[in-house]
């Protein structure tokens, strides 16, 4: 799960994004005939909009990079990443989102998928989510089918009590590393997002 800063910025949705440190000549090439599907399906509260993100990274140390600013500060080179995203709008309760795990050819840098993350918010309350959290990791030894549950709580704004409330979603009781690791060859993930009642609710 990503660390939360004291005053995080509201996230913007991008169907495809690339890390600032990425090199143009290392960009992954689209696979013309992908076949390894990852399906995320389940239910969510109608008030919530959910963003699902599938991230791919390089697996060749020769392709590790860093931004110029970070390099000046002494940060080590790290893998390059790209992310594809799907938006599940408020109003919907049942959903199904599909990604191809082999959407990109491995190429010289050996591009491979490594994780699915999520972000959510209430459009009627705020302009967007603040943080992402992990749904599943993607590994060769992972499961072909699993289920995860997230319970979302309304929390005070990071900025002030006068700002709209934010959502903080935590994993259900049965969360485990084994149950949140899926196969790189394809999988089906049942995932539910529920909205907890406010403390003052009866």
Q: What is the topological layout?
A:
Layout: E1 16-18, E2 37-44, E3 49-57, H1 68-72, E4 81-88, E5 94-100, E6 112-121, E7 133-139, E8 145-155, E9 166-171, E10 181-183, E11 187-195
Parallel strand pairs: 2-11, 7-10, 8-11
Antiparallel strand pairs: 1-4, 2-5, 3-4, 3-6, 6-7, 8-9
Describe the structure.
The chain has 202 residues and is mainly beta. It has one domain (36-63, 77-195). It contains one helix and eleven strands. It has one helix at 68-72; strands at residues 16-18, 37-44, 49-57, 81-88, 94-100, 112-121, 133-139, 145-155, 166-171, 181-183, 187-195. Strands 1-4-3-6-7-10 form a six-stranded mixed beta sheet, with no helix packed on it. The protein has a five-stranded mixed beta sheet with strand order 5-2-11-8-9, with no helix packed on it. The chain is globular, with a radius of gyration of 18 Å. Residues 1-5 have low confidence and may be disordered.
Average residue pLDDT: 90
Number of domains: 1
Q: Topology as H/E string?
A: EEEHEEEEEEEE
Q: What is the makeup of the main sheet?
A: 6 strands, mixed
Going by helix content, strand content and strand pairing, the class is mainly beta
Global Rg? 18 Å
Fraction in helix: under 10%
First and last CA, distance: 31 Å
Shape: globular
How much of the sequence lies in strands comes to: 35-45%
Number of strands: 11
Biggest β-sheet: strands ordered side by side in the sheet: 1-4-3-6-7-10
Number of helices: 1
What low-confidence regions span 5 or more consecutive residues with pLDDT below 50? Answer: 1-5
């Amino acid at each position: 799960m990503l660390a939360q800063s004291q005053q995080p910025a509201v996230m913007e949705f991008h169907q495809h994004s690339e890390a600032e440190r990425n090199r143009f000549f290392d960009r992954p090439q689209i696979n013309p005939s992908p076949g390894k599907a990852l399906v995320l399906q389940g239910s969510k509260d109608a008030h919530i909009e959910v963003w699902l993100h599938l991230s791919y990274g390089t697996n060749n140390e020769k392709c590790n990079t860093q931004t110029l600013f970070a390099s000046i500060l002494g940060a080590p080179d790290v893998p390059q990443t790209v992310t594809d995203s799907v938006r599940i709008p408020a109003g919907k309760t049942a959903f199904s989102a599909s990604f191809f795990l082999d959407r990109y050819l491995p190429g010289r840098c050996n591009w491979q998928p490594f994780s699915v993350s999520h972000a959510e918010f209430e459009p009627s309350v705020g302009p967007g989510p603040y943080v992402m959290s992990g749904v599943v990791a993607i590994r060769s030894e992972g499961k072909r089918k699993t289920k995860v549950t997230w319970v979302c709580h309304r929390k005070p704004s990071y900025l002030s009590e006068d700002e709209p409330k934010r959502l903080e979603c935590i994993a259900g009781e049965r969360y485990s590393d084994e149950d949140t690791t899926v196969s790189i060859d394809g999988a089906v993930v049942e995932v539910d997002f529920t909205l907890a009642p406010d403390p003052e609710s009866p």
